[in-house]
Amino acid sequence: MSRVCTICSHEQGDDIDRALVMGLPNRRIAAQYGTTEQAVRRHKDKHLPTLLAESQRHVRADTLMARLEHYTHSAHSIRTKAEKSGDLRTALAAIRELVRIVELQERLIGEIKDTATVNVLVAPEWLQLRTALLDILQPFPEVRALVAGELVRLEAAA
Ligand SMILES: [Zn+2]
């Protein structure tokens, strides 16, 4: 018996995938998109890895970087809202996601270096994102220093 996946057929399925990639809890995603935790978990286990693998194979580096930039904006806006309402735990979670995005970029850059000749570190999108990231992290000097150090290391290795 095969059941249709309610997340794959969900009209905001892309947003749900994005939320999963950002590591938001299944319960929160289910609540936000009016679905069940079980459906989210099932989709995450069975379909998301395939979707990610496909997109990694097919999507060009610039598109991926643009997506990461989109995540950066999302995390930034979550952080701003959370700070305005004094919800520092959520603000901190958003910061953590921003750091994870940098880690993801590092992995992405590693893969690109293995397989292609594109140097994303000189792409305008990268430079924009780099500036945006450091900007966003300004109120958090310790995290900013860590990220900046990592960027310098990455760029030196490129
Ligand atoms: Zn699915």
Structural notes for this entry:
It is a single chain. The protein has 8 helices and no strands. With about 160 residues, it is mainly alpha-helical. The longest helix has 28 residues, at about 90-115. It folds into 2 domains: about 1-60; about 60-155, no CATH class. Bound molecules: zinc ion. Zinc ion binds near residues 7 and 8.
Q: If you average the pLDDT, what whole number results?
A: 80
Q: The biggest beta sheet, please?
A: none
The distinct ligands, each listed once, are: zinc ion
Helix percentage: over 70%
Number of strands: 0
| Gyration radius over CA | 17 Å
Low-confidence stretches: none
Number of domains: 2
What's the helix count?
8
Please tell me what the overall shape is: globular
Structural class: mainly alpha
Q: Cα distance, first to last residue?
A: 50 Å
Write down the secondary-structure element order. Answer: HHHHHHHH
Which descriptors apply to this entry?
binds zinc ion; mainly alpha; 75% helix; 158 residues; single chain; 2 domains
Summarize this entry quickly.
With 158 residues, this protein is mostly helical. Helix content is 75%, strand content 0%. It binds zinc ion.
SSE layout:
Layout: H1 13-21, H2 26-32, H3 37-46, H4 48-58, H5 61-84, H6 88-115, H7 124-136, H8 141-157
Helix pairs in contact: 2-3, 5-6, 5-7
Bound molecules: zinc ion.
